[in-house]
Amino acid sequence: MPQNKRESLIFTIIMCFTMVLWMSMYNVTLHMGGFSMTVLKEGWLGFPFAYIYAMCFDWFVVSHLAKSVAFRFFVKPDSAPLKKAIAVSCCMVIPMVIVMSFYGSLEACVKSGMWSLLLPVWITNIPKNLIMALPFQLIVAGPFVRKVFRSAFPEGKVLA
C-alpha cells in the first residue's frame, strides 16, 4: 500500500493503466463478438481518452470516497495490509465500474449517434464489467501492480 501522496499517485497511475487497458480490450471484445487484431487496434485507439477519464475520476473522486468507505465499514488502520488492500480495492472497483461503464456507453453513443440507447447500454454494461473487473482486480491486477510498485519503489524510497 502506498505510504504518502506521491506513492499514491504513482500507484494510481500504474493501477489505472493496467485496469483501463484490460477492461478496454474486454469491452471491445464483447461489442465486436470475439477477440481479433481489430479488437486490439480499437481497444488501443480508445485507450488514451479512457485512461485520462479514469485517472481523473479515480484521483479526484473515487479514491477518497472508496478509502473512506473501506476504513469506516470494513477495516481499521491497524488491520493487516492485505485485508486493507482487498477492502480498498473492492470499494474502488464498484464506483469505477459505474463511472467507466458510463464512459463506454457515452463513447458507443457518440460513434453510433443513437443517443436513446445511452441509459440501456450503461445499465447493461455495469454487471458485465463488474463480473470482469472485480476478480481481475483482486486476483491479477492488484497483486501484480503491488509487486511491480514495491519492486520499483521500495518502502521509504519515495519521499512525501
Describe this structure in words.
It is a single chain. With 160 residues, this protein is mostly helical. The protein has one domain (5-152). The protein contains 4 helices and no strands. The chain has helices spanning 5-32, 37-74, 81-112, 118-152. Helix 1 (5-32) crosses helix 4, helix 2 packs across helix 3 (81-112) and helix 3 (81-112) packs across helix 4. The longest helix is centred in the middle third of the chain and has 38 residues, at 37-74.
Rounded average pLDDT = 94
Count of folded domains: 1
Helical fraction equals over 70%
Uncertain segments = none
Biggest sheet, open or closed, and with what strands and sense? none
How far apart lie the N and C ends?
A: 14 Å
Strand content: under 5%
Task: State the order of secondary-structure elements, H for helix, E for strand.
Answer: HHHH
Number of strands: 0
Structural class: mainly alpha
Count every helix, treating DSSP H or I runs of 4 or more residues as helices: 4
Indicate the overall shape.
Answer: globular
Q: For the CA atoms, what is the radius of gyration? A: 16 Å
Keywords: Membrane, Transmembrane, Transmembrane helix
Pfam family, one: DUF2798
Organism: Hominiventricola filiformis
InterPro entries: DUF2798
Summarize the structure.
The chain crosses the membrane at residues 9-30, 50-74, 86-106, 126-145. With 160 residues, the protein is mainly α.
